[in-house]
Amino acid sequence: MKVYYRLSNQSAGGHKDKLPHATKQHCLINTVSVFGKNNITVIGDNLNDETTKMVESLELKLTPVSNGNGSSTFRDALNLALEENSGDDIIYLLEDDFLHKPKASKIIQEGVRRYDGYITGYDHPDKYLDKTIGGNPFIDSGGEVTRLVKTNSSHWKITNSTVMSFATTHNRLKADKDLLYKHSSDNITNSFSLFLELSQQYGIPCMSSIPGVSTHVESNWLSPLTNWNK
């Protein structure tokens, strides 16, 4: 599996309350420990000298870009992944504010090999928050209508959406490139609309591991049932 890691000195959406240890450096080091440095390409958007040196100290491949917004850097990562891979190669497009459990690489790859869709290790808490109190518009009574399935190492559910960190095959990305571009045409990507269109119009599922093997590091949106401070 090849990881295309979108790194910026900026924080998307302004200041967010995050896990205190989950710095840009810590998240990247965690990614290296789980996926291996030889499998990671960093797409660095307007990195300052300190962050550039940090990436170089980890001996990671760095592709510098100058965008200033997440959607353009997502498309750069997508294009590079399509250019460097082929066929059933597994690709993980990843943001710079995630943490992963040690077995995340194995489990995410299992999901991609089993299901022709988009795979995430992030069990997004909005799937347990009713629409009446500001949660996901498809959630009632603390959950979404879904199907529960399993691979050798994890349970999975079909979920209505995830964020713009996901794994799939080169073939899947190539087939869906126009949709991926469509929903990343503004300065901020629209992941919710992307996955709704993929599932509702084209029958392409988004699958989430249960429990989550990764998390966004924003404190209010951590994958449940794990002490991510550890």
Q: Can you walk me through this structure?
A:
The protein has 230 residues and is α/β, with parallel strands linked by helices. The chain is 31% helix and 22% strand. It is built from seven helices and eleven strands. Strands 3-2-1-4-9 form a five-stranded mixed β-sheet, sandwiched between helices. Strands 6-10-8-7 form a four-stranded mixed β-sheet, covered by helices on one side. Strand 7 (148-150) and strand 8 form a beta hairpin. The radius of gyration is 17 Å and the shape is globular. It starts with a strand and ends in a 14-residue tail after the last strand. The model has no long low-confidence stretch (mean pLDDT 95).
Determine the structural class based on helices, strands and strand pairing: alpha/beta
Form type: globular
Low-confidence stretches: none
Give the termini separation. 26 Å
Strand neighbour order, sheet with most strands: 3-2-1-4-9
Number of strands: 11
What is the percentage of strand-forming residues?
15-25%
Mean pLDDT, all residues: 95
User: Any idea what the radius of gyration is?
Assistant: 17 Å
Number of helices: 7
Main sheet record: 5 strands, mixed
Element string (H = helix, E = strand): EHEHEHEEHEEEEHHHEE
Helical percentage? 25-40%
Brief synopsis:
By secondary structure, this protein is an alpha/beta fold. The chain has helices at residues 24-35, 49-57, 70-84, 104-114, 170-175, 177-182, 191-202, and strands at 2-8, 40-45, 61-65, 90-95, 98-100, 118-120, 148-150, 155-159, 166-169, 206-210, 214-216.
